[in-house]
């Protein structure tokens, strides 16, 4: 099966055929670096990281460009607030961006250009548009004339008559058409600026991506991607200015990830349901967050379902009670209330993630129990089926949800195999090694299951013990009490102790070498 992807431009799935055989020119719109990244950024960049990984695993030589917008109104406002230069603000938040992306296992791009380092190319592109009469100068500002580009709105499929100048379209009576957008903005006092044929100023938002893509990938790209919120006006304007200048298609395929909601409501600072990646990762596993996003198709809308808890007594409460900062006799701060929020979806994803890690740990242990040898494996058809279904899912518009589901039967078989390895043992050992290798192969494409299983499982156990406030000394004492009861054949007493352990949130497993315990999953 060849790779097929959904092209926003045509509105349908298409077989992926790069402009140059074997090579992919891939551009993803980056962040405006004025603050910490939020959960919406996490969803977008996990999505397009997986696209990159699968393209490379499929044998393509990918040049991946992801930009930083380091010149922007929001950055200037933040710099003025902090009393520093705008580029100092952007440098700080570029570093923070890498911290968050590294935590989520997101690979660095091949090239990561900044607006501030692309000024000659931006100015040259605007000059070309002015010379071709696709742009016009008003005083010291330059605007793109949308009426000069007949294909305007071909990506978003909007009707120009229905559009009103509004939230993301600058209202300026000097424009020939309200939909015209700024390519160059004249300098204002206290703002960073650069020399240009139109005087000191800085670029508009949209022109930067075209100039950076042209510089590093050429005038035609294979894939241009970003969040769905960028379709209009950003990507629409990119197409207009790029194709007006080059007279060739700007990108063959356009990909857009779905939006992220919190409790089925758009995430918004004004609504108080806005969460940064950094804030959430204080309490949840980063790989589990990544897995949560991948359990849904990248084009679908994803909603984080929140569970609100009283930070003092731990009781489950409503959002209204959490926002009131009082529950019965408990009073707490807004920060305490936010820290007590549980991300239900991530919790479920973490359980699934560590089911895989525990399976890998058992497979690795069985595989290490004998020297490696050549020969047949058990159920080779199951291994082949899991491998082919995974690849078919990924080739079907990067369907990560189906790819993860394709491992279910393999995981079940792996646990049966490891719990009671059938004879001949060398065949069981080879099978466990093959299963572990297959899980890791697919996981590498998803950016999952690459950690040391023993360490990952141990770390989770420590986190769960702390979260459930389990007294390990008390657990050990009860285990000793149970051991004595079993030795003395007081089985009713042993069962009673086991019930006490279960009430503490502990599972007990009896092994030939003695009883061991683990934290019970809710």
Write the layout of secondary structure elements.
Elements: E1 4-7, E2 12-15, E3 23-28, H1 39-57, E4 61-66, H2 73-82, H3 86-103, H4 119-131, E5 135-138, E6 141-144, E7 181-186, E8 201-203, H5 205-217, E9 221-227, H6 231-246, E10 251-257, E11 260-262, E12 265-266, H7 277-280, H8 286-294, E13 302-304, E14 306-309, E15 316-317, H9 319-324, E16 326-327, E17 330-331, H10 334-339, E18 342-343, H11 344-367, H12 380-395, H13 400-405, H14 408-419, H15 425-446, H16 453-468, H17 472-487, H18 491-503, E19 506-511, E20 514-519
Parallel strand pairs: 3-4, 3-9, 9-10, 11-13
Antiparallel strand pairs: 1-2, 5-6, 6-7, 7-8, 11-12, 14-15, 14-18, 16-17, 19-20
Helix pairs in contact: 2-3, 4-5, 5-6, 8-11, 11-14, 11-15, 11-16, 12-15, 14-15, 17-18
